[in-house]
Specification:
It is a single chain. With about 1300 residues, the chain is an alpha+beta fold. It is about 45% helix and about 15% strand.
C-alpha cells in the first residue's frame, strides 16, 4: 500500500528507487517467516518475477530507443512463424462482429479500478486482450496451447463477474468458440501458407495496423511525439465515450489543441491536466471564486466545443491560456499545480507551432475536416431518427397503459403538473416537477441527447409522484405500474444501437447491480462515510495507542472456533471498507449499523473487564460523536405538528371567508351582521366570525373539530335568525358546503389529518337544513299570510281615502315620455328627486309610469332606491362603492321635483360597461333589494327593471371589485380586539359497565380529575422516587371509589432501567414495555404523554401532544431473560362515541429517527479507564499483543484479529493465552473444569508442548479450591494432579 501511494504521489524519480523498496519489502517478509512457510516461498517468487519483469521492460526500452536498426536485421520478416499464428488467432477474436457489433470491444481493456473496485476483489487473475497482445509481441507464449490458457482465463473471468444470460456472458462464450474454430482451422492447414497469407494480406491493406500493433498502440510513442501527432490515450477512469468522440474529430485543429492539453502525460503515465478537468468546489475553495473573476475548466471548454462556440484556433488558445493564468494566480509557484501549468503552457505552444506549420503546408485542413464531417451527416441523421423512434415507442407504452379490468388510463394524472392554485405545497416539496406533456414536447423538439436522458426524466416523474403522495394511494401505485411498463418496453426494444452519442458499449460489461457511471470524485455521502471510517480507524488514546488495530481483521477459525459459534454476524473493518468501495451503503446509518455490530460482537465475546471491551466502548463513542458532528446533531426533522394544524385551520378560514359567487360577491359579507350573542340563548358564549378570526390569528385552535364546531355554530345561528328565503340563509348553507369541501381537500379525506370533524359530511348538512326548513316554513307561511292581509287592508284604506280621486285616475293620460324645463324624461330612466327633508341627499327613483292630470301637471310613479346610510344594518357590514338597494317603497311625485338624471346598473354589468354621456358620480350599482319592514337584504337574482333608452359602452379597463365599510363602523383607533380564551374540545365524563368489577367502584372511559381529562388508552407520567426519569404507565382501567380515582395498566421503563451492553444503542425517547402491571392513584400522575409504536412514530403525531412528550416503543423487556424482544405493535382500544378521540396528523414523508448511545456507555468507559490508568505501556502490551502503536503489522491480536502467515501453525505457548489472566474467578473455574474434563476424556493423550494449558487450569483450580468452598471439585482436582 505504501509503494502504491508513492507511485500515485510521483515520489519515485527512477526505477532503482522502486526496486529498492520492493527489495526491502521482500527481505522483511523472508526475515519474519520461516523458510518452509508458503509466505517465504511466495516472497522469493515475487522477487524473481519483479527482477525478470524489470529486465524485460528496461532492456526493451533501451532496445527500442537505440537499436531499431539491429532489430530489423535480426528479424527481417517482422515476426516469427509462431508469432504469426498467434497473431492470426488474436486477430480472429479482435475482428469478429455479430450484427455489426464488435464482440471483442468489451474485452480489450480491463475495467476501471476507480469505477469497479469489486471486480478486482472477485477476479483474482485479471487479464484482457491487450495483455495477451503484449505477451505475443514479447514472445511470452511458447505454443498455441499456452495462449489458449489465457483466452480461457479471459472467458472465465467474464463469466464469473457477469450474470448468466447477460450480453457479456454470451460474448465470452462466443470468443471461446471463435478462438477454438480458428485454432482448429490453423491446425489442419499448412503453417507456411498461412504465414504467407497473413503477410500478403497485411501488405495489401497498406497502412492498416495488425491486430497486435493495434492493441499495443497505447504507450508506444514518447510524450512529446504523442502531443505533436495528436495521439491521445486515456486511463482506466476516463469515459470511453469521450475517446470515441475525440477520434471522430481528430483532424479538427481546435480539437487537437484541446486534446494536446488534456491528453498529456508525465513519465509515470499520469495526466498532467487532471486538476483542470473541473472547477474547484465552491464549498471547499470559496475564496477561489472571489479571486478568479472568470473561472474556466476543461469541462467548460469541452461543452463549448460540442456547441461549436469556437470559430478559430485563437479563441480556444485564449481560453486555455486564461485557465492556466487563473491557476498561476491562485496557486503559489512552489506548488505541484503551478509546475504542471508551466509544462502544459509549453506543450500548448509546441502544439500551436505544429498546427501553424501544418496549416502552411496544407491550407485547407479545416475545410477537409468540415467536408469529412459533412460526409457522415446522412449516417448521423439515420441514427438520430432511430433514437427518436425508440423514445416515441417508450413514451407511447406509458401513455397507452391501462388498468386491468376497468380500462382506466394510468397516465391521466401524469399528463400535466398539478395546479399551483390547488396544490401550492407541491412546488415546495417537489423541486424538479416534470410531466408527460413536457417529456413528449422534448422528444418532438429533439431536446434529449440520448435515450438515457429521457429515461431519467421518466424516473424523476415517477419519483416525484411517490415522494408527494402517500404509499398505497392511487397515484403512488400508478407510478409503480407505469415504471414497470416502461422497463418492460425498453427490455422488449433491446439495447440501443451502437451510437457514440447514446451510450458506450463498454458500459455493458459490468454487473447490472452496479451503476456503470460513477464519478471520479466522492459524492457527499461517500465523503461522510470516509470521514466516519477514518475517525474510527485513526483514533488513538492519550498514550498514542491506535485502538482500531485489533478490529481490522477477524480471528481465524483455527484459532478461535468458538468465536463463530458465539457471534452470529462477524464483521471487521476490512469488510466494512470493501462494502464502502462497492457502494453498498445507501446512507450513513447503514455504515454505523455495521460498525456498532462489530463493537457489540467484541463486547459479547470478551469479558467486561478486558482491554478489548474497553477499546470497543471508546471507539463506539467516537463513532457516535463523529456522526453527530457530521450531521449536526438530531436530524430527524420532525415537522412542527402544532404549527401545521394552525396553518391548515388558517387556510381553511381564509378560504371560507373569501369564497365568492360568480359576480365577485363574498358570501361572508351578508353574515357579518350576525350578532355575537345568540338572542335565543343569551347565556351561551358570544361567537361570530370576528371572534373566530381573533382566535385563529392567535393560534388558539389546536384541534380541527373545535374550529369546525365554532364555524358551524355561527352558520347555524345565521339560519336560525333568518327566513329560509333570505339571502343570509342561502349564504350560510353555501359557506358550510364550501367549508366541508375545502376541509376534505386539506385533510385529504384523513390521509393527512385524521379528525372526528371529518365524520360530518354534506349529507349530514343537507339533512340538517331540511329539518330546519320543515320547522321554519309553517311559521313563515303564517307570517306571509298575515303580511298579505295587512297589505290588503292598507290598500283598501288608501282607496277609501282617495275617494273619487280613483275615478279621475282612470282619465289620466299616460305616456312613455314627457318634457320639463327643456329636459325630456322616459319610462325606465333614473332621476334625482328633491328630498323630503332638508340637508338630505336627493332620492334616487326609477320612473315606471308618466302621465298628465286634468290640470296639465306632469306626474311620475316609480321605485325608490336607498343608499347604505338610508338602510338599517349592522356597523360591520361592507358595501360596494356607489352601491344602492332596490327598496319596496313605491310612490308618485310631480315631475317638477326632478333635480337631474342618473343611472343605476345591475352588478353583473356595472364593472364591465358604462353609460354614455354620464358623469361617474351619477352612476350607481345595485346588487340586492332591501325590505324596510324586515330590515333585511336579499340578493337580486334577475334584473326586472323597465328598459332604459340609455346607451352603454364597454369600459376601457374593468372596474375592480372594492368593498367599503359602513359609515356607522367604529373608527380604527377605538376598536378593541375581542377577548379570546383558550379553546378546547367540550368533553363529559363517560361511565362504563365492567363485568366482574369491584363493588363500590364506578368505572369510566373518560374522566376529568383535577382539571385533567383522561381516557382509557392514554399514557401518563408516573411520579417515581429514586429514578432519573419518571416511569410511564398506560391507562387500561379507570375507576372512582370513595371520591378517589385510580387507574390500572402496564408500566413502560426507560433504557437505564434495563440490563444491556454499553454498546447498545437506543432511539431517542425510547421506552420498553415491561411485565409490570400496577394500580396507581390518579394523584401520582405527573402529566400526559403518548407512547407510539415504531410505525406510528415514523409516520404520525397526535395534534395536541408536544413533541417532547411523544415516546417510542417497539420492544418488550423480559426481566427474567434480561432481553429485549420486538413485538408487532401496541394494544389499541375501541371506545364509545361519547369519548373524544385524539386527532392524528400524518407526515407527508416518514421521518428517520436517530439512535443515541446507551446511558451506561460513559459510566463504563470511566470505570475501565480508571482501572487501566495506572498500568504501564508494557503491561498494556501484555494484555493485548496488538494494542500499542499498531506499527507492527504481524503482532498478535487478543481475540478479534486474524492470525496471518504461519502463525496459525505455531505451537501453543503461554504468552498467547495471557487473556486468560483477565478472566473472572467464576470463568477461571468454568474453564478449568472444561480443560480437565477434556483431559480426562482423552486420557491425557496431549503432546508435551500442549501441557501448559492443562497445568494452568490445574493452578487456577487449586487457587479456587484453596480460597472457596467448592469441595465438590476436590476429587476432580486430585485426579488431575495424579495424572
Amino acid at each position: 500500500m505504501k509503494i502504491q501511494q508513492k507511485l500515485k504521489m510521483e515520489e519515485y524519480d527512477d526505477v532503482e528507487q522502486l526496486t529498492a523498496d520492493f527489495q526491502l519489502l521482500f527481505n522483511n517478509a523472508k526475515t519474519y517467516y520461516k523458510p518452509e512457510t508458503p509466505e517465504y516461498r511466495a516472497a522469493c517468487k515475487l522477487w524473481d518475477l519483479y527482477i525478470r519483469t524489470k529486465n524485460e521492460f528496461v532492456q526493451r526500452g533501451d532496445y527500442d530507443e537505440d537499436d531499431d536498426d539491429d532489430d530489423s536485421q535480426e528479424n527481417p520478416g517482422g515476426a516469427t512463424e509462431e508469432e504469426e499464428v498467434l497473431g492470426q488467432l488474436l486477430e480472429a477474436v479482435l475482428t469478429y462482429t455479430e450484427h455489426g457489433r464488435l464482440i471483442s470491444e468489451l474485452f480489450q481493456r480491463l475495467p476501471s479500478k476507480v469505477q469497479y473496485p469489486d471486480y478486482y476483489a472477485i477476479i483474482k487473475e485479471p487479464i484482457d486482450l491487450k495483455a495477451i497482445a503484449q505477451r505475443i509481441q514479447m514472445g511470452f507464449y511458447k505454443s498455441v496451447n499456452h495462449m489458449t490458457k489465457d483466452i480461457d482465463l479471459l472467458v472465465k473471468n467474464a463469466k464469473t463477474y457477469n450474470e448468466p444470460g447477460s450480453q457479456v456472458f454470451k460474448d465470452a462464450n462466443t470468443i471461446k468458440k471463435i478462438f477454438a474454430q480458428r485454432k482448429l482451422e490453423l491446425e489442419h492447414s499448412e503453417p507456411i501458407k498461412s504465414s504467407i497469407r497473413i503477410r500478403n494480406r497485411r501488405f495489401a491493406q497498406g497502412d492498416r495496423l495488425s491486430s497486435i500493433t493495434t492493441a499495443l498502440q497505447y504507450g508506444s510513442e514518447s510524450e512529446e511525439d504523442a502531443i505533436l501527432t495528436g495521439s491521445v490515450h486515456y486511463d482506466e477512469g476516463e469515459s470511453e465515450a469521450e475517446s470515441i468522440h475525440s477520434s471522430m474529430d481528430m483532424s479538427n485543429p481546435i480539437f487537437q489543441m484541446y486534446e494536446a492539453v488534456r491528453g498529456c502525460r508525465n513519465n509515470q503515465g499520469h495526466l498532467l491536466a487532471e486538476p483542470f478537468f473541473q472547477l474547484p468546489s465552491r464549498k471547499d475553495y470559496p475564496d477561489y471564486f472571489h479571486q478568479i473573476s472568470h473561472p474556466v475548466s476543461l469541462q467548460t471548454i469541452r461543452s463549448k466545443m460540442k456547441n461549436n462556440e469556437y470559430e478559430s484556433v485563437e479563441q480556444i488558445d485564449t481560453e486555455l491560456n486564461l485557465m492556466f493564468e487563473n491557476a498561476k494566480r491562485y496557486n503559489v509557484p512552489s506548488s505541484q499545480i503551478y509546475k504542471r501549468v508551466l509544462k502544459l503552457q509549453h506543450i500548448l505552444q509546441m502544439k500551436r507551432k505544429e498546427l501553424t506549420r501544418r496549416d502552411d503546408e496544407d491550407g485547407d485542413s479545416m475545410l477537409s475536416s468540415t467536408l469529412s464531417d459533412g460526409g457522415s451527416t446522412k449516417r448521423k441523421s439515420h441514427k438520430k431518427n432511430t433514437k427518436k423512434n425508440r423514445m416515441k415507442a417508450l413514451y407511447a407504452a406509458v401513455a397507452e397503459a391501462r388498468e386491468m379490468g376497468t380500462g382506466r388510463r394510468l397516465c391521466d394524472l401524469f399528463m400535466v403538473k398539478p395546479s399551483k392554485k390547488d396544490y401550492p405545497d407541491y412546488y415546495k416539496i417537489i423541486l424538479e416537477p416534470v410531466d408527460l406533456r413536457t417529456i413528449d414536447h422534448n422528444i418532438r423538439a429533439d431536446r434529449y441527447t440520448s435515450e438515457d436522458a429521457m429515461m431519467e426524466d421518466m424516473r424523476l416523474m415517477f419519483r416525484n409522484a411517490r415522494h408527494y403522495n402517500e404509499e398505497g394511494s392511487q397515484v403512488y401505485n400508478d407510478a409503480n405500474i407505469l415504471e414497470k411498463v416502461l422497463k418492460e418496453k425498453r427490455r422488449e426494444l433491446g439495447p440501443p444501437p451502437d451510437d457514440d452519442d447514446i451510450i458506450s458499449p463498454k458500459l455493458k460489461i459490468r454487473k447490472s447491480g452496479i451503476s456503470p457511471k460513477k464519478s471520479k470524485y466522492l459524492t457527499p455521502l461517500q465523503q461522510k462515510l470516509n470521514e466516519l471510517y477514518e475517525a474510527v480507524k485513526n483514533y488513538t488514546d492519550k498514550r498514542g495507542r491506535r485502538l482500531s488495530t485489533i478490529f481490522l481483521r477477524l480471528p481465524s477459525r483455527a484459532e478461535l472456533p468458538d468465536y463463530y459459534l458465539a457471534i452470529k454476524k462477524p464483521v471487521d473493518m476490512e469488510k466494512v471498507k470493501s462494502h464502502m468501495l462497492a457502494n453498498k451503503y445507501q446512507d450513513v446509518d447503514a455504515l454505523v449499523e455495521d460498525l456498532v455490530l462489530m463493537f457489540n460482537n467484541a463486547c459479547t465475546y470478551n469479558e467486561p473487564e478486558s482491554l478489548i471491551y474497553k477499546d470497543a466502548l471508546v471507539l463506539h463513542k467516537v463513532l457516535l460523536e463523529t456522526r453527530r458532528d457530521l450531521e449536526g446533531g438530531d436530524d430527524t426533522n420532525v415537522p412542527d405538528v402544532a404549527r401545521l394544524i394552525q396553518e391548515l385551520i388558517r387556510n381553511l378560514f381564509v378560504s371560507v371567508l373569501g369564497h365568492q359567487d360568480d359576480e365577485g360577491r363574498c358570501y361572508s359579507d351578508s353574515l357579518a351582521e350576525i350578532p355575537a350573542v345568540d338572542p335565543n340563548n343569551p347565556d351561551k358564549t358570544p361567537l361570530n366570525f370576528e371572534i373566530i378570526r381573533a382566535k385563529v390569528d392567535k393560534g388558539r385552535y389546536r384541534r380541527l373539530d373545535v374550529f369546525q364546531d365554532h364555524m358551524f355554530e355561527v352558520l347555524e345561528k345565521a339560519r336560525c335568525l333568518h327566513r329560509t328565503d333570505s339571502e343570509i340563509f342561502e349564504d350560510s348553507v353555501e359557506l358550510q358546503q364550501f367549508f366541508i369541501r375545502i376541509r376534505d381537500e386539506l385533510c385529504k379525506n384523513g390521509e393527512i389529518l385524521l379528525s372526528p370533524a371529518l365524520s360530518y359530511t354534506t349529507k349530514h348538512l343537507h339533512s340538517d337544513v331540511e329539518k330546519e326548513k320543515k320547522e321554519k316554513l309553517p311559521k313563515e307561511y303564517e307570517e306571509d299570510k298575515l303580511k298579505r292581509e295587512e297589505e290588503k287592508k292598507e290598500a283598501e284604506k288608501s282607496e277609501d281615502t282617495a275617494g273619487g280621486g280613483w275615478q279621475g285616475a282612470l282619465q289620466r293620460n299616460y305616456s312613455q315620455d314627457c318634457s320639463f324645463k327643456d329636459n325630456k324624461y322616459h319610462v325606465g330612466e333614473y332621476v334625482y328627486v328633491e328630498p323630503t327633508e332638508p340637508n338630505l341627499q336627493p332620492h334616487i327613483v326609477c320612473i315606471e309610469r308618466l302621465w298628465q292630470d286634468d290640470a296639465g301637471e306632469n306626474w311620475l310613479y316609480g321605485c325608490w332606491f336607498y343608499r347604505p346610510n338610508e338602510t338599517f344594518h349592522l356597523a360591520t357590514r361592507k358595501f360596494l362603492e356607489k352601491e344602492v338597494f332596490k327598496s319596496d317603497y313605491y310612490n308618485k311625485i310631480p315631475v317638477s321635483k326632478i333635480l337631474g338624471k342618473c343611472v343605476v346598473m345591475f352588478v353583473k354589468e356595472y364593472f364591465k360597461l358604462q353609460p354614455d354621456s354620464f358623469r361617474p358620480e351619477d352612476v350607481f350599482v345595485c346588487e340586492s333589494r332591501y325590505s324596510a319592514k324586515t330590515k333585511s337584504f336579499k340578493k337580486i337574482k334577475m334584473w326586472t327593471m323597465p328598459l332604459s333608452s340609455v346607451k352603454f359602452v364597454p369600459r376601457e379597463v374593468p372596474l375592480p371589485v372594492v368593498r367599503v365599510a359602513s359609515m356607522f363602523a367604529p373608527k380604527q383607533e377605538s376598536e378593541k380586539p375581542p377577548e379570546v380564551a383558550e379553546d378546547g374540545k367540550e368533553r363529559e365524563d363517560v361511565t362504563i359497565e365492567v363485568s366482574n368489577g369491584e363493588p363500590g367502584c364506578q368505572y369510566y372511559e373518560q374522566l376529568c380529575y383535577n382539571d385533567m381529562w383522561l381516557k382509557v388508552g392514554d399514557c401518563v407520567y408516573i411520579r417515581s422516587h429514586g429514578l432519573v426519569r419518571n416511569r410511564v404507565g398506560r391507562i387500561e382501567k379507570m375507576w372512582v371509589r370513595d371520591g378517589a380515582a385510580y387507574f390500572f395498566g402496564p408500566i413502560f421503563i426507560h433504557p437505564e432501567e434495563t440490563e444491556h451492553e454499553p454498546t447498545k444503542m437506543f432511539y431517542k425517547k425510547e421506552v420498553f414495555l415491561s411485565n409490570l402491571e400496577e394500580t396507581c392513584p390518579v394523584t401520582c400522575i405527573g402529566g400526559k404523554c403518548t407512547v407510539s409504536s415504531f410505525k406510528d412514530f415514523l409516520s404520525c403525531r397526535p395534534t395536541e401532544m408536544p413533541e417532547e412528550d411523544v415516546l417510542l416503543c417497539e420492544s418488550r423487556y423480559i426481566e427474567i431473560e434480561k432481553q429485549m424482544k420486538k413485538f408487532k405493535g401496541l394494544k389499541r382500544f375501541s371506545l364509545s362515541a361519547k369519548v373524544v378521540e385524539d386527532e392524528i396528523y400524518y407526515f407527508r414523508s416518514l421521518i428517520v429517527p436517530q439512535k443515541e448511545p446507551s446511558p451506561l456507555l460513559d459510566k463504563k468507559i470511566e470505570e475501565l479507564e480508571a482501572k487501566f490508568a495506572d498500568m504501564t505501556d508494557e503491561e498494556l502490551e501484555d494484555l493485548g499483543d496488538d494494542d500499542g502503536d499498531g506499527s507492527d503489522a504481524h503482532c498478535m491480536p487478543q481475540l478479534q484479529t486474524q492470525l496471518t502467515g504461519d502463525m496459525d501453525m505455531l505451537h501453543y505457548a503461554p504468552p498467547q493465552v495471557s487473556s486468560m489472566l483477565l478472566l473472572k474467578e467464576n470463568h477461571c473455574l468454568t474453564l478449568s473444569c472444561h480443560l480437565l474434563s477434556f483431559a480426562v476424556y482423552h486420557e491425557f493423550r496431549l503432546p508435551g508442548n500442549h501441557l501448559w494449558p492443562l497445568m494452568h487450569a490445574i493452578q487456577c483450580l487449586q487457587v479456587v479450591h484453596e480460597t472457596s468452598n467448592c469441595f465438590y471439585l476436590l476429587p476432580f482436582f486430585q485426579r488431575g494432579q495424579q495424572r
